[in-house]
Structure formats: structure tokens, C-alpha cells
What does this fold into?
Amino acid sequence: MVDIHPLVICGGNGTRLWPMSRTDSPKQFQRVGDDGSPTFFQAAVARHRGEGFETPVIVSAVRHRNTVAAQLAAMACPARLIFEPMGRNTGPAVLAAALTLWADDPGALMLVVPADHVIEGDINTTILSMRDAAVAGHIITFGIKPRYAETGFGYIVDGGANPAFPGLHKVSRFVEKPPLRKARLLVESQHAYWASGISMFSAATLIEEYKTFDPDSFVAVQQALAHGASGARGLLLNPDHFRHAANQPTEQVVFEKTRRIALAPLDVAWSDVGSWSAMYGISKPNHDGNVLQGDVIAVETRNSMVRSDTRLVSVVGMSDVIIIDTPDALLVTRVGHCQNVKKVAEHLKAAKRQEAVAHNGSTDSWGSYKTLVDRNGLNLSTLICNAGASLDIDPVRQREVTVISGVLQIGTGDAQIVLSEGERALLDNRQVSRLSNRSDEPAELLVMTQSADMALADCISPVPAGIAPAPLRPGSPARSLSDDPVPHARPA
It folds into this structure.
């Protein structure tokens, strides 16, 4: 029996879940519930591990490559990584993965999985039962029996059973985000399903259909792979070719046109978690109907969701409210108005506010960082590296670090220096620099970056425990790690 390659697509910004979700840290990389719960992305990867499944393939924006690597490492899950230089919707991403898998195995089967949905129930039994249909050339889209008339979802209309494969159905038509009256008629018909965003097919089938329906995009993606940059951190698609692929989802390019399309109903609880109301709906409330996450005290409060990332939040005498507190932004809204949160994110983006793009500060096992200044091409941040931790920082045109407290070892290739309090040095602008704290106390740094293409958080990669920094050569003097004019580490 052919095993299935899960393909996890990490696209989308999740603006309806602001302020938790930001452009640089979208919904899929946020935790589903309280501290200790997996992120949406981790839950999607874990859902399809084990018998019948191969190593997952992950397609994500290059700006999220460090986040992807860190979250996979936390799961001890190997994966094949493909990174997009710019977003082109799901179609080119799926095609890039299909071409990659087909090159190794022309008979490879793919399961496309969104990274930001919540699913409860036995989904894999149905998926694994559809392998023969996928091998036979069917493109299988999985549908969810609708619980209510939803205007924000796509629908798949059942076209009757396919006698060749038990459990497989024909597709009569697709209906994309219908108005309320039409959505009600679809639900009442008992023949329509919500489109889950999950699909399965052979890599060869998807490639053949792309050649038929969008040959220009096929060539663009094929060339983006051929001229991409491949390394230990994954494959980066070539931007000059990839940008010419049509910015369309797989559903529009292939599913709605092909004769190979089929439907497999899923009997699971499913949510795309497209709003804070939906997030409240998938969470387990207490006896007062409240979902409380973080350091929260609720008094005379009912049917509400309160989430705090860092500080104490107290709520008194409220009902049917959503309160989301992050270190740099607070959201207060009523249940039923959460779809309009997207307008706040759009306003912040139009005003070029940092709160639309990234969180000011992040905490992880290696330490934490906080942005102090980010404007006019200059980023000034503080960074705390925990005792015994190491992290890699990607090169940019110019980045200088100053040690505020503690001792830090910095290595780039064969060059190694040690900085103490008050000393600073430029990092190499051509290769990755490794920062290691080999002491028993945290080290606090001031990091100044000029003309950065990415936020500091997107340039940090935690080094897994057990990989020790290279030892300093005996008597090695502290020296610069860059050709820029800072010849030695020196007092600030």
C-alpha cells in the first residue's frame, strides 16, 4: 500500500485573530490554547504522523523559515521544507511540492493540509481508505457536513456515489461563499458539504492537470524549483521565476475544471478558526461559560473569552465579551462582532503601524527579545540569551551587538570572540553568526540593525540542545567578525 506525504501549507495572515496573529507571526504559528498547548501548525503536522504517512512536506513563506524550523524541532519531527519568496496563493505552492515529490517517486501520493484549522475526531481512517482512489487518478476533496448556514465557507455539492470506490462520491458543483439565503438552501438540501481545504491526489495527477489548465504557471514553478537555492535549511524557490505563477488557489486552477474531481465526506468536528468567536467556540468553557487563558481573574463574568499573554487581566461584571491582551496591544470586542476585527488590522496596516506586522517582543526557550526602535531603516532591539543557550542570527548589511550584562561568545566560521559587559562588535554581513551563552547567568544584548530586510525575530534560529559552540583557540584575541570598520571588540 502506498504511503501518503502530508503537505502542510503555511499561508495566510489570519487578520481576524489580531492581535494574536500578525503578518510576521500569523495564526498558524500561535498556540491553540493555554501555555503548553501546540500551535495550529504543530497540531496539523502531528495529526498525520504514523503508519500510512511519510515525512511531511512544509511550504511556507521564507520570512517564517526560522519559526517553522523551531516548531518542528520542538516536536522532533523531520520534514522537507520549501520556502516561497512571495505569496502566490495555494496553487503554486501545491504544484512545487508535487514536482518535488514526483522527482523522487513518480507514484507519490499527497495530502494537502491547511496549517491553521482545528479538527477533532478520526480523520485518518477516511483519508487512508481513499488511497486506491488517488492512485487511480482521482483528485479527492474532503467535505464536512455543515452544522449551519455559513456564508464565509465554500460548499461542495454531492453528485452521487462512485461505485468503483466505497465511500467516494462524485462532485456535482462547487459553490464559493454563497449569500445567506443560498447557504441555507444548500444546508437544507442535505447534499452539500463545507469545503474543508483538505485534498488528496497523486503528484503525477496534479502535474498533468496543471499542464492542461495552466501551462504558464507550470513552467514558472518548474523553473523556480530548477533555479532555487537548496541547502540544509530547505529549498528557496527562485523569485524571478516564481512570481510569474498565477496567484490562484488550486481549487480555481484545477478542482473546478477537472473531470477527475471526487468527494469524500469526513465525520469529524472541524473549524477553520476564522474569528475570535470561532476560537471561543472550539475551547472548553468553565461552569460560567468562560474561556480563561493566562493570568486571568473573572468576577461576575459569563460567556466570555479572556486571554492574557504576560500580565494579570481582571474582568468584572461582563458578559459575551472577547478580551485578548498581548504585550503591545489589547483587543476588547463583543461576541458576534469578531469578524470586524479584520478592519482594525487593515487600519493598522494602512497607517504603517508596527502592531499590524509583528509582536513587540517574544519569549522562547532560548530567551527573549524586544524591539525598542524600528523606523527609517534602523532597528534597535534588546535580546536576552538564557544560560546555556545558543542561537544563530542570519546576516544583513550591518548589525552590531553590545553586551549590556553577562558574557557572550560569538562565532562565525573559524572566527570566535568573547564579549563582556560594555563591549560590542559587528557581526559578519556574509554568513550566519552563532551567539552562545556558556555561563550560568543570562546575557542581555543591545542589537542594532541597519537596512534590515527582515525583523530580528525572523533572523533568529535556536540551536538545538546538545550542539555545543566551537571552542575558542587558546589565547585567541577578541576580534571583529566583519570586514566593516570595527576592528576589535571594545568598550561601548
